[in-house]
Amino acid sequence: MTIEIRNETTYTVDETEFVDCARSVFEAMHLHPATEMSILFVDEDAMEKLHVQWLDLPGPTDVMSFPMDELIPGTAEHPAPEGLLGDVVLCPSVAAKQAAEAGHSAIEEMLLLTCHSILHLLGYDHMEEDERKVMFDLQRTLLLTFLASRGKS
User: Fold this and answer.
1) pLDDT tens-digit profile of 7-38?
2) Is the pTM of this model over 0.90?
């Protein structure tokens, strides 16, 4: 698995934690060991430009996902084919504001957003209530499993 991290902000990011989180999700979703993705951390101005360009929505958002090879989850018996999963773009300052409102740490919020985005890259969505329940239950399980493996639950 190749997970490239790039931080274009002044926010301090523990890159290893995000690589480990993504790997945990990759393994749980039975992705091919050669699957690739990137995570880019950007400031609010850069995120706002992407938000306007791709979704025609004003202001910065917390995270955006850009799928590449349209991979879907595999199973233990039939792992997903190898490919380029896509790109995740996170805005730490927006995530930190959301974390404060939700009553947890900014790192927990960004790890949650990482799980959330990988699920989007794998075709999950939350536009309909039934989809929302599936996706949000899965992202919660993935995040809690990862945090527990790190002794942070």
Assistant:
1) 999 999 999 999 999 999 999 999 999 999 99
2) yes
Beta strands in the chain (DSSP E): 2-7, 36-41, 63-67, 84-90
Q: Which residues are 54's β-sheet partners?
A: none
The pLDDT tens digits for 72-95 are: 999 999 999 999 999 999 999 999
For 76, half-sphere exposure in the C-beta direction (CA atoms, 13 angstrom radius) is 0
How far is it, in rounded angstroms, from Cα 118 to Cα 140?
Answer: 13
Torsion of CA 5, 10, 16, 22, to 10 degrees: -50
| Contact assessment for residue 84 and residue 68, using Cβ atoms and an 8 Å cutoff | yes
Binding-site residue ranges for Zn(2+): 116, 120, 126
Domain boundaries, the chain: 2-149
Q: What's the fold here for domain 2-149?
A: Collagenase (Catalytic Domain) (3.40.390)
Sign of CA dihedral 133, 121, 61, 21: positive
| Cα atoms in the Cβ-side hemisphere of radius 13 Å centred on 23 | 15
Name the binding residues: 116, 120, 126
Tokens representing residue 47 in the block: 């995120």
